[in-house]
């Protein structure tokens, strides 16, 4: 009911958050396949996440952006960013960014 009313939103949707520093594509795809299938089977299609969430990965790859986009994500929140980059973005009021995925797959931006 809360999801259908727009008062609760599921984020990310993977079974567990993958680390981008040393991950194989298939592991990431398997994590999301299992998690997204569980969410849909349990809560319905309306609960499918539209926002990715990476609270503590070591690094961010453009391949991750491509995968999240292909999983249907419209955006992503991540918490680990270099302190110099963060301060520069705060000073310039440019905390939002366009994370461009792999050019080999066409235009997939998160």
UniProtKB/TrEMBL annotation:
GO molecular function, one term: alpha-mannosidase activity
Gene Ontology CC terms: lysosome
Gene3D superfamilies: Glycoside hydrolase 38, N terminal domain
Alphabetized InterPro entries for the sequence: Glyco_hydro/deAcase_b/a-brl, Glyco_hydro_38_N, Glyco_hydro_38_N_sf, Glycosyl_Hydrlase_38
An example Gene Ontology biological process: mannose metabolic process
Positions of the Glycoside hydrolase family 38 N-terminal domain: 2-102
Signal peptide coordinates: none
PANTHER family according to UniProt: ALPHA-MANNOSIDASE, LYSOSOMAL ALPHA-MANNOSIDASE
Protein name as annotated: Glycoside hydrolase family 38 N-terminal domain-containing protein
Protein's organism: Rhamnusium bicolor
């Amino acid at each position: 009911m809360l999801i259908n009313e727009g008062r609760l939103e599921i984020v990310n949707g993977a079974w567990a958050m993958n680390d981008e520093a040393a991950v194989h594509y298939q592991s990431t795809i398997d994590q999301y396949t299992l998690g997204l299938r569980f969410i849909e089977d349990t809560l319905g299609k309306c609960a499918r996440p539209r926002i990715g969430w990476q609270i503590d990965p070591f690094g961010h790859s453009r391949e991750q952006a491509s995968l999240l986009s292909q999983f249907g994500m419209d955006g992503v929140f991540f918490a680990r960013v270099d302190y110099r980059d963060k301060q520069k973005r705060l000073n310039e009021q440019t905390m939002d960014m366009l994370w461009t995925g792999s050019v080999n797959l066409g235009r997939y931006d998160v």
